[in-house]
């Protein structure tokens, strides 16, 4: 008994027909050169040419007070009261702590009494010297007695000066019981509570940081500094004289701080522990929005890349072997194709509102780089149709000449 042939249901038969049609279409090109029977994708190119571009260098930085003062007691005493609100802005001379003043008031009273005693002794010695002087002149007493009386008056005068000095010291120590802010700035938390003992010139009570202007510290690696120096020697880079960069700061949320500043210190020595040069910028901070210790991104503007090739950042793609761009090329039939070109990128810049990569190697002047329609390129060296760009994307780079229309090229 022979087996009857299996029958396919209508849905299965339709699926087989579609698969066969798709297989028949694979590998077939569109009359204009497209893959899989589709027309080639439209892309836009730019003709890269050497030009001068502004360069921005970015580094990670940290803010610090332009002045950091440690507030310490200048006399030994018990902390009686804290007179400021921790974390608030304080003015130079503003009282911050009050120490127990009673022992110093007693010392002041003792010094005042000592001065009065010395003055009384001086008055007595002056009277004695004045009484004996005429007697000595009449030879009624010996000259030695008169000289001793005059010396006693001089000793009394010296005692007055010593008492006055002790009185000034006692007044100064009493004034030191009010611990004041040495500078304008933001106060920190109190390191000693009320009732604790503060030792003279030793115990730290708090710190005050001057944050207007504020400093931003950042580091430049030795390798990067060598690279920049070589670019300057080769004439490919110009930097502002005397480090006169315009410094801007980006905060952790991505916003840019409204005030810009200048570099006020650049170390000439390499830190042996980090292998970096330390640099410091000064920025106006009148509203005290920046606080010491914040991590920020420091942007240095003012440098220029000379004779550089650049492409928009959207044109640079990431592949398994690194970054690359698509360049308009020709196949053996003279038709336009998208040729991948590995590139090494350098600094980034901004030109006419467009973020661009400066190309260190991989491109040459006159290359036509594809900047639009990249998502429609299915694979490397696939056919494309180049259309006329609206305008030159970068300064010094004219639009690439448009290729003939696809229907005209196929005739």
Number of DSSP helical runs: 5
Taken from the alpha-carbon principal axes, the silhouette is: rod-shaped
Number of strands: 21
Q: Into which percentage range does the β-strand content fall?
A: 35-45%
Mean pLDDT: 85
State the CATH topology of the domain at 32-53 and 307-398: conserved putative lor/sdh protein from methanococcus maripaludis s2 fold
The radius of gyration is 43 Å
The second-level CATH architecture of the domain at 32-53 and 307-398 is Beta Barrel
**Largest sheet properties:** 11 strands, antiparallel
Beginning-to-end CA distance, first to last residue: 62 Å
Output the structural class. alpha+beta
User: What's the CATH class label of the domain at 32-53 and 307-398?
Assistant: Mainly Beta
| Helix residue percentage | 10-25%
């Amino acid at each position: 008994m022979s087996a009857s042939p299996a029958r396919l249901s209508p849905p299965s038969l339709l699926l087989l027909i579609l698969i066969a049609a798709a297989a028949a279409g694979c590998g077939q090109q569109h009359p204009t050169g497209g893959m899989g029977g589709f027309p080639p994708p439209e892309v836009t190119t730019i003709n890269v040419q050497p030009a001068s571009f502004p360069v921005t260098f970015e580094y990670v930085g940290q803010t610090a007070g332009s002045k950091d003062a440690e507030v310490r007691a200048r006399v030994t005493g018990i902390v009686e009261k804290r007179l400021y609100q921790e974390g608030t802005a304080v003015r130079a001379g503003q009282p911050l702590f009050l120490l127990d003043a009673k022992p110093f008031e007693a010392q002041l009273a003792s010094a005042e009494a000592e001065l009065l005693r010395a003055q009384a002794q001086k008055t007595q010695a002056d009277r004695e010297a004045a009484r004996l002087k005429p007697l000595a002149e009449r030879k009624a007493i010996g000259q030695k007695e008169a000289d001793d009386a005059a010396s006693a008056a001089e000793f009394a005068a010296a005692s007055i000066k010593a008492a006055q000095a002790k009185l000034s010291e006692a007044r100064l120590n009493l004034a030191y019981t009010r611990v004041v802010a040495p500078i304008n700035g933001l106060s920190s938390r109190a390191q000693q509570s009320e009732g604790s003992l503060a030792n003279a010139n030793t115990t730290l009570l708090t710190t005050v940081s001057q944050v207007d202007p504020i400093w931003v510290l950042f580091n430049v690696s030795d390798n990067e500094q060598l690279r920049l120096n070589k670019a300057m020697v080769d004439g490919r880079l110009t930097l502002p004289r005397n480090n006169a960069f315009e410094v801007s700061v980006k905060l952790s949320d991505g916003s840019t701080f409204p005030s810009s500043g200048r570099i006020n210190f650049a170390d000439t020595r390499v830190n042996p522990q980090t292998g970096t040069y330390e640099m410091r910028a000064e920025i106006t901070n009148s509203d005290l929005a920046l606080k010491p210790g914040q991590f920020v991104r420091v942007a240095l503007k003012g440098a220029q890349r000379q004779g550089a090739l650049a492409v928009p950042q959207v044109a640079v793609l990431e592949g398994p072997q690194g970054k690359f761009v698509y360049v308009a090329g020709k196949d053996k039939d003279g038709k336009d194709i998208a040729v991948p070109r590995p590139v090494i990128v350098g600094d980034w810049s901004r030109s006419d509102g467009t973020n661009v990569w400066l190309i260190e190697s991989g491109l040459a002047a006159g290359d036509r780089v594809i900047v639009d329609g990249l998502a429609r390129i299915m694979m490397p060296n696939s056919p494309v149709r180049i259309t006329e760009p609206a305008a030159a994307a970068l300064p010094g780079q004219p639009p690439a000449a448009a290729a003939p229309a696809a229907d005209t090229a196929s005739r």
